[in-house]
């Protein structure tokens, strides 16, 4: 829709408030709300925002970042294509936005723009990236002992599905009403843990869709059912972790040919696909700082957790950081895709996808060759097999991942100078705060934010 059509839609639906949303470097969905009486002008000119807002980290601490001080403003400029009415609220809609300078030029603190640049680089290489985030989340209720899981049931069981059905049905309906295609809705391994999967789309659309998804799941649980829904990677100390596994595939620019497909070996990826995997593995320590960016993220990345705890890849191997997802018979050329297991719900999807694209493109450009794929859990391989597969440990904590990011020129160049400095400063401050306050404090605060 164009500006005129959005104004007409707001009037026709009797919408009262329109949220101009964005995702900050900490992965938090923020924004400002415009009244319908102002939408005709604000839809194009945007809303003012202090530059300092993007220097607020996950724990709501304002960190000193040069170029992100409380002096001067940028503009929140909504993308018309992301307009949806929010079914769990009364007369309210939202759009996701770019953050731009007052003259309309790009601002280095906009995470959505970082992804746009990575997409443009892929386009220049003749590649169109499609993606989808496969998100796990917990439903929880308030108790005297803090948030506790709600509607427990055996994993993938009909009884588990039944117990959460009142909430899950509303979530599915609210997603569908906004135009999203829901493929699966299931109960997961943890007590109260759920998963809803949306169909893949182009890379920018996938990131926008994931943020709309997060908002819908949280809003439906809180507003319609009085529950919490949290995408935190490790909300309960003894519980199963939650991921936001990133599925993606590489296509020709016309969208007709899946470049991962290997016609000579239908269940294996192509040479281009292997090059991409090699690049992703090469830059994995730095990429991790953006796909598993929070202090609590590293409490999930443990052996035998189906989360990926090593730099590794394999075919349908859910213990590897990168899994080649097996294609479906008769749809091999369309359905073969890659899955990044080391990705969770605290990530900013624009930055996560950008890092993956940049790393993989580097592998294609340099024709990197990946090591031998792991045929079983990397922790169970013999030392000789681990060497053959070049199994290496991931960064063990947030600080190690940030150090790797700082040293990786390809990824920091892709982020841009201001964004890179912002992420390093705000995330390191998070780490220091979490160490000071303790694991329980960090888990609870991450739970409530995500």
From TrEMBL:
SUPFAM superfamilies (alphabetical): Glutamine synthetase, N-terminal domain, Glutamine synthetase/guanido kinase
Keyword tRNA processing among record annotations: no
Q: Which GO terms describe its biological process?
A: glutamine biosynthetic process
**What keywords are annotated for this sequence in UniProt?**
ATP-binding, Ligase, Nucleotide-binding
GO molecular function per UniProt: ATP binding; glutamine synthetase activity
Q: Which residues form the GS catalytic domain?
A: 111-450
Supply the PANTHER family for this chain. GAMMA-GLUTAMYLPUTRESCINE SYNTHETASE, TYPE-1 GLUTAMINE SYNTHETASE 1
Protein name in UniProt: Unannotated protein
Q: Which organism is it from?
A: freshwater metagenome
Q: Where is the organism placed in the taxonomic lineage, from the top? A: unclassified sequences, metagenomes, ecological metagenomes
